[in-house]
Amino acid sequence: MLNIFFGDMSEAIYNTSLYFDNTYYDSWLQDPFAQKMIKSIDKAVVLSGQAVDSKALGVIPVTKISGGLKTLLLIYNEPGKIFNASTCGDNCSKWILRIAKKLDMDITINLRHIMDFGDGKLDIKILNNDVIVHSMGEMVQYAGYFIV
Fold first, then answer.
1. Which residues form the domain of 53?
2. How many domains does the chain divide into?
3. Contacts 24+ apart (CB under 8 A), 123-127
4. Mean pLDDT by 10 residues, the chain (148 residues)
């Protein structure tokens, strides 16, 4: 299940881009699921563990991929840690849900805004009040109390 804590969270890794640049492994990019995320979010194809070919930017080092993609790769590869997913745009929300389902374990993210998870059925636990929400309407209703 996806767990979300809204607002400041001392144990969350806030600067995900810097953290990624200093901790990622080349092997992370060889994973087929990761490659689908990279193609979807940055419109890029993995050339190696250190470079991608981006439709917009050409061949770039992995450290130059988008901040949202870096955060997704961290959530996927280090699910025991809590990352600030407010670095992600709404285009990443479906991937956060897919990661939680694929890993078949609870993952926790920190949000400092209300991310749009779409119109589908959700099973997301808001850790601030231990409520499980099943739709965006329910999430907005509860999350609004915790976003400053």
1. 2-143
2. 1
3. 123/1, 123/2, 124/1, 124/2, 124/3, 124/4, 125/1, 125/2, 125/3, 125/4, 126/3, 126/4, 126/5, 126/6, 127/3, 127/4, 127/5
4. 96 98 98 98 97 96 98 98 97 97 95 96 97 96 89
